[in-house]
Amino acid sequence: MGQEPDVERPRVTVLGASGFVGSAVTAALARRDIRLRLVARRPAAGPAGAVAKIETCTADLTAPGAVAAAVEGADAVINLVLHESGWRGAGDPAGEGTNVGVLRDLVVALRHGGRPAPVVVFAGSTSQIGVPPRVPIDGTETDHPVTAYDRQKQAGEELLRAETRSGALSGITLRLPTVFGPGPTPAAQDRGVVAAMTRRALAGQPLTLWGNGSVQRDLLYVDDAGAAFAAALDRPETLAGRHWLLGSGRGIDLRELFGTIAEVVAERTGRPKVPVVSVPAPAGATVTDAHSLVADSSAFRSVTGWCPRVSLREALGRTVAALADPAGARRG
């Protein structure tokens, strides 16, 4: 009899739970009265004081049968599995097996799971748009993905949409902008441009800016991204079957961003601000690197009530503090 209330609690499975965004999603979901299964290649510990009943599973999700075992009995699945390739993220064709293959195995497993249509929340990218036809984008534009990574995300999103139309599941794609912030462990750190430039500034090195720095980016603090995935689970009947943009809705010039990073680091260290210098774009730069990308997330906000809570300046301060003293940040 004592086990019956636990069985009634929904089971949410997070794939990629030990990663940068996955850790933030885990923290948001751990505050809920649910059964939470954390699946990752590396051990993924639940946060202290969790309300959720947490189960951890270490697995290579590209191995045959691994996905089916990981999502068995799930009422909802959040797929954050990502093939990473360098500091700019997953951009090479070898990521297809992870970025698309894991999702393909997931929908097959849920299709034959013998349960009511589960909810699947998939992490896409605002960069799937390719070269934006306007700024900001609002999610109604036609996509023209440029990089291998964006084409892989697009393929996964289309697969999820087709399965939703068939009634096999309720699929939701949340397209992420540039997500940044401190990670809870050394293995779950941000590898994006904000972290890269913060580390340079802490080392006393100039911050290198491609061109004149007029290109704008939309930045989202990692905890706010985690809260968005949790919010999506509350409105599957409205959100299912399409993609939704996340973002602050405010673009910031990269020159202004780099200057702010240098300023916050100087405040932290007591040293002079490092300079921001312009350099030519490298050979590996894509056409999208030269275009601003800002996301209007008002559609998602109106459905879920979600909105970013942490200001850019505060978020940069937290990021700088964590990278300046990683051990202290983890203790905190």
Task: Record the SSE blueprint.
Elements: H1 4-8, E1 11-15, H2 20-29, E2 35-40, E3 53-58, H3 66-70, E4 76-79, H4 96-99, H5 101-111, E5 119-125, H6 148-166, E6 170-176, E7 178-180, H7 193-202, E8 207-210, E9 216-221, H8 222-232, H9 236-239, E10 242-245, E11 251-253, H10 254-269, E12 276-279, H11 298-304, H12 312-324, H13 326-331
Parallel strand pairs: 1-2, 1-4, 2-3, 4-5, 5-6, 6-10, 7-9, 8-12
Antiparallel strand pairs: 9-11
Helix pairs in contact: 2-8, 5-6, 7-10, 7-12, 10-12
Pfam family, one: Epimerase
Protein name: Reductase VcaE
Domain NAD-dependent epimerase/dehydratase: 12-247
Describe what is shown at a glance.
It comes from Amycolatopsis saalfeldensis. With 332 residues, the protein is of the alpha/beta class. It has helices at residues 4-8, 20-29, 66-70, 96-99, 101-111, 148-166, 193-202, 222-232, 236-239, 254-269, 298-304, 312-324, 326-331, and strands at residues 11-15, 35-40, 53-58, 76-79, 119-125, 170-176, 178-180, 207-210, 216-221, 242-245, 251-253, 276-279.
